[in-house]
Amino acid sequence: MRLVLLGAPGSGKGTQAQRLQARSRVPQVSTGDLLREAVAAGTDLGRAAKIVMDAGQLVDDPTMLGIIRERLARPDAKRGFILDGFPRTIVQADGLAALLSQIGQPVDAVVLFEIDPEVLGRRFSGRRSCRRCGRVFHLESNPPRTGDNCADGMPHDLFQRPDDNDETVRKRLAVYRERTQPLIDYYAKRGLLHRIDADGSLEDVDARLENAIRR
Ligand code: AMP
């Protein structure tokens, strides 16, 4: 299974990618998470990326293609991958296609998470991530359950992403419309696009995603 999840920031791609990874054992590859790891590690890439991410802008295409090339070369990606947050530009999509055609492993399907802008606003304000295991929660619709801890048994340590504040969210949504939305047509023309309604309970969206990728 080689999947691309496409959709606005906050549309639930990351949450669904984590759930699909747990069900299918195919790894979620989130470029946002890879960049946040670089920020946390304080590497040169991380320091440069932090400035761009905090401004709600996109990290440049050659850097992102380098990151994805390295990540997809790791052994776990031999089973396939669930790309979450990549590609975000036409240049990235062309780069991904070239990379995958070299290894004869093209993308099987692209799933577009469609969501009302009003619902998006509520999702951002309640979104929290665990500092230690990286799982994504929502204070109202998906809080950690009692006894549902990190793998080491410690309770989740929730924080709000620094780029989830109102101003940066507005910027990120504008960047999505301008740079990433053209990918909808790009993948539709290639016969790869499946649209799903991304509003509703986690289980409803799970089912719609399963339906889309089994077709
Ligand atoms: P995400 O966690 O996917 O919302 O990504 C958080 C931030 O990381 C984005 O707002 C961008 O600044 C950066 N980022 C993640 N993926 C990409 C990408 N494919 N291309 C450029 N920037 C990215």
Helix and strand layout, with pairings?
Elements: E1 2-7, H1 13-24, E2 28-30, H2 31-41, H3 44-54, H4 61-72, E3 81-84, H5 90-102, E4 109-114, H6 117-126, E5 127-130, E6 136-138, E7 158-159, H7 166-180, H8 182-189, E8 193-197, H9 202-214
Parallel strand pairs: 1-3, 1-4, 2-3, 4-8
Antiparallel strand pairs: 5-6, 5-7
The protein binds adenosine monophosphate.
CATH class categorisation:
Alpha Beta
Structural class: alpha/beta
CATH topology: Rossmann fold
For the largest sheet, list the strands in their spatial order. 2-3-1-4-8
CATH architecture: 3-Layer(aba) Sandwich
Strand share of the residues? 15-25%
End-to-end gap: 12 Å
* Beta strand count: 8
Biggest β-sheet description = 5 strands, parallel
Number of H- or I-type helical stretches: 9
Q: What is the number of independent domains?
A: 1
Cα gyration radius (Å): 17 Å
Q: CATH homologous superfamily, by name?
A: P-loop containing nucleotide triphosphate hydrolases
Molecular structure report:
- With 215 residues, this protein is an alpha/beta fold.
- The protein has one domain (2-214): Rossmann fold (3-Layer(aba) Sandwich).
- 49% of the residues lie in helices and 15% in strands.
- It has helices at residues 13-24, 31-41, 44-54, 61-72, 90-102, 117-126, 166-180, 182-189, 202-214; strands spanning 2-7, 28-30, 81-84, 109-114, 127-130, 136-138, 158-159, 193-197.
- The strands form 2 sheets. Strands 2-3-1-4-8 form a 5-stranded parallel sheet, with helices on both faces. A 3-stranded antiparallel sheet has the order 6-5-7.
- Strand 5 and strand 6 form a beta hairpin.
- Helix 2 packs across helix 3 and helix 4 (61-72) runs parallel beside helix 5 (90-102).
- The longest helix has 15 residues, at 166-180.
- The protein is globular, with a radius of gyration of 17 Å.
- The mean pLDDT is 94.
- It binds adenosine monophosphate.
